[in-house]
Amino acid sequence: xxxxxxxxxxxxxxxxxxxxxxxxxxxxxxxxxxxxxxxxxxxxxxxxxxxxxxxxxxxxxxxxxxxxxxxxxxxxxxxxxxxxxxxxxxxxxxxxxxxxxxxxxxxxxxxxxxxxxxxxxxxxxxxxxxxxxxxxxxxxxxxxxxxxxxxxxxxxxxxxxxxxxxxxxxxxxxxxxxxxxxxxxxxxxxxxxxxxxxxxxxxxxxxxxxxxxxxxxxxxxxxxxxxxxxxxxxxxxxxxxxxxxxxxxxxxxxxxxxxxxxxx
Length: 264
Description:
Elements: H1 5-8, H2 14-27, H3 34-38, H4 46-66, H5 75-89, H6 93-103, H7 107-122, H8 125-135, H9 142-160, H10 164-191, H11 198-224, H12 235-249, H13 256-262
Helix pairs in contact: 2-11, 4-10, 5-8, 5-9, 5-10, 5-12, 6-7, 6-10, 7-11, 9-12, 10-11, 10-12, 12-13
């Protein structure tokens, strides 16, 4: 099956991600390096690790293939998508990642997550997103907030259960999705007349490294606290995927991501 023109453009420059990380370390000499963090990682089951990574990559690719072409959306549809995204991300990403930090039992996983949080706060990513949203004239309205409220509540309650492995898996999936989604988001803003792209540019590059680091954190956590085979390992992933579908398609529209989740 051929890739759409949108999907092809999501292939990321891995060297750019490495350069982003090196810049971050140079700016923060007191922060632990990835060599220090990951030297403590325990060796996971290669078969299980490969299976989880493949499933996450497959989920993300399927979601990317389901995205509408930005040029085919009306101005109001583009505004609504950007607004719902801002309504979810600006006030929740740090909460979700903090939950993952509190839930993690392994020191390597906690170190990775703490570094991610440090970057979010130090560089004020919520302010970066607010600037991006304002420039696209897409500040959330009450209807935008209420559209995502039920699915967002489900994710918040899941995070509050502090289930280490499943929560880290959810955040790994999300970082993997976001780094590919950023080009799409940037195109929406451009079509709305915005030239402000810092938020999309930063996350489209650095989240490549974040995803790789979180997969390593997940392996460390699973080695220390193996998940119950009877537990729904992908529960958080599925809840978040439904929420992203509401962001993309709206609460009243056909949520292709929700249908896909129900089929798993």
